[in-house]
Hints:
Shape: globular
Oligomer: single chain
Strand content: under 5%
Distance between the termini: 32 Å
Largest sheet: none
Amino acid sequence: MIDVTGLDKYVKKLDTLTYIHLFIYAQLKKLNSLKEISNSLSRKKTVQRLAGLGSISKSQLSRKNREIPHEILDVTLRHLIQKFNTPLDL
């Protein structure tokens, strides 16, 4: 969907997949604001390495929030829910 919409065509820093990863991290860590996400990323080297970013401002996160069509997030959420509800093959 990202490729079809051309959402990341001219993106240099915060691509859609990285954005989604950051917000999954924020949800798991119970970060309640864009400022908390930004601060957490700037303080934690492990998160920086996993995200592939040294830092990100709350305004960049806010802009990305406005740019991403809700359909992409809806499909992502449905996919994750399906993954969690599928039993593991052991």
